[in-house]
C-alpha cells in the first residue's frame, strides 16, 4: 500500500532535504525514523526538495509498504524517532497512482523578511534580514514582470538539474505586517515548479529594487537576459518556507498545516 505523509521541519540544522552521505538531511532523518518504526527500510519520495537552511510547513512525501498500521500510528510512531525540529503532521493512505511530486499541480513558498536596523536574535535562522527600508509598491510592480510562463534561466543555480528553465509563476504576493510588527514582510510565491535557488535569486532582485538600487523595470531586463550573472546575488535561505504542494481535490489531502502564530 502507498502512504502519504505531511512533514514540517526547521531546516536550520540540516543540509537540505535530499539524502547525503553525511546523513544530516531531512530525508535521512525521516527515513531513519520510518525504518525504526516499521522495522524495515523505507524510502520516500517528496513533493519538492528544499535547500540547506530552508524550512517547510507542509512537505509531502509518499512511500510504499506492506506494513498495515492505523494512520495515527504512522504519525505518532514516526515522530517518536524524529528529532524535535522535524514532525509528521498527518498520514493518509493514497492510491498507487498518487505521486508526491508528479501529482502536484503547483507548489507554494513564503519568504519572511525582517526590515530592521538591528539583526534578528530570537528569530535568527527563521527570517531573512535587511537594514535598509523597503519600497513595497516598487517590489510589487517588479514582481508582475515574473507572472506567467517564462524562461527563468537568470534565476537558476549553476547546479540546477531541472530539464527545462521554463516555469509558470501563478502568484506573487508581497505584504507588510501592520502595527507593532510592521518590520516584517511576507513574500508568497506559487508556481507549477521551481528551479534550484529560484526563489532566493528572485528575492535578491526584489530586495535590490525595494532598497532603491534598481528601478522596478530592471526585473524585466534580468528575466529577458536569461543569464544568472544578470541578476542579484542569491539571498539568504533563513526566511524561506515551503508551504506545500497543491493537489487536485480528488486526492483528499490537507491543503496546508495549521497557521503558525509566530510566522508573520
Beta content comes to 25-35%
Q: Can you give the mean pLDDT?
A: 93
Task: Tell me the distance between the termini.
Answer: 38 Å
Q: Rounded to an integer, what's the Rg over CA atoms?
A: 19 Å
Supply the helix-strand structural class: alpha+beta
Q: Low-confidence stretches at least 5 residues in length (pLDDT < 50)?
A: none
Enumerate how many helices there are, as a single number.
Answer: 5
Shape: globular
Largest sheet: 10 strands, mixed
Q: SSE order in H/E notation?
A: EHEEHEEEHEEEHHE
Describe what this molecule looks like in 3D.
With 264 residues, the protein is α+β, with helices and mostly antiparallel strands. Helix content is 19%, strand content 27%. The protein has five helices and ten strands; from the N terminus they run βαββαβββαβββααβ. Strands 1, 2, 3, 4, 5, 6, 7, 8, 9 and 10 form a ten-stranded mixed sheet that branches. β2 (45-46) and β3 (55-64) form a beta hairpin. α1 packs across α2 (71-79) and α3 packs across α4 (198-210). The chain starts with a strand and ends in an 18-residue tail after the last strand.
SSE map:
Layout: E1 2-9, H1 26-38, E2 45-46, E3 55-64, H2 71-79, E4 86-94, E5 106-115, E6 128-130, H3 136-143, E7 148-151, E8 166-176, E9 184-191, H4 198-210, H5 218-225, E10 240-246
Parallel strand pairs: 3-10, 5-6
Antiparallel strand pairs: 1-3, 1-4, 2-3, 5-9, 5-10, 7-8, 8-9
Helix pairs in contact: 1-2, 3-4
Name some characteristics of this structure.
264 residues; alpha+beta
Quickly describe the structure.
The protein has 264 residues and is α+β, with helices and mostly antiparallel strands. It has helices spanning 26-38, 71-79, 136-143, 198-210, 218-225, and strands spanning 2-9, 45-46, 55-64, 86-94, 106-115, 128-130, 148-151, 166-176, 184-191, 240-246. Strands 1, 2, 3, 4, 5, 6, 7, 8, 9 and 10 form a ten-stranded mixed beta sheet that branches.
Amino acid at each position: 500500500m502507498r502512504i502519504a505523509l505531511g512533514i514540517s521541519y526547521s531546516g536550520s540544522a540540516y543540509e537540505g532535504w535530499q539524502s547525503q552521505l553525511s546523513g544530516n538531511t531531512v530525508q535521512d532523518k525521516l527515513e531513519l525514523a520510518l525504518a525504526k518504526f516499521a522495522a524495515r527500510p523505507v524510502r520516500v519520495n517528496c513533493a519538492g526538495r528544499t535547500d540547506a537552511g530552508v524550512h517547510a510547513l507542509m512537505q509531502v512525501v509518499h512511500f510504499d509498504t506492506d506494513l498495515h498500521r492505523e494512520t495515527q500510528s504512522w504519525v505518532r510512531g514516526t515522530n517518536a524517532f524524529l528529532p524535535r525540529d522535524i514532525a509528521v503532521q498527518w498520514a493518509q493512505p493514497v492510491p498507487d497512482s498518487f505521486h508526491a511530486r508528479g501529482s502536484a499541480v503547483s507548489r507554494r513558498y513564503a519568504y519572511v523578511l525582517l526590515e530592521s536596523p538591528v539583526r534578528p536574535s530570537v528569530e535568527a535562522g527563521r527570517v531573512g534580514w535587511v537594514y535598509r527600508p523597503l519600497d513595497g509598491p516598487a517590489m510589487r510592480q517588479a514582481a508582475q514582470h515574473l507572472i506567467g510562463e517564462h524562461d527563468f534561466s537568470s534565476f537558476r543555480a549553476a547546479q540546477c538539474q531541472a530539464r527545462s528553465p521554463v516555469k509558470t509563476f501563478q502568484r506573487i504576493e508581497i505584504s507588510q505586517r501592520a502595527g507593532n510588527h510592521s518590520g516584517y514582510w511576507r513574500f508568497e510565491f506559487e508556481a507549477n515548479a521551481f528551479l534550484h535557488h529560484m526563489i532566493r535569486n528572485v528575492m535578491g532582485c526584489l530586495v535590490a529594487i525595494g532598497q532603491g538600487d534598481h528601478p522596478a523595470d530592471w526585473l524585466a531586463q534580468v528575466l529577458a537576459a536569461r543569464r544568472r550573472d544578470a541578476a542579484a546575488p542569491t539571498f539568504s535561505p533563513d526566511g524561506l518556507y515551503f508551504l506545500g504542494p497543491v493537489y487536485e481535490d480528488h486526492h483528499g489531502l490537507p491543503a496546508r498545516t495549521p497557521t503558525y502564530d509566530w510566522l508573520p
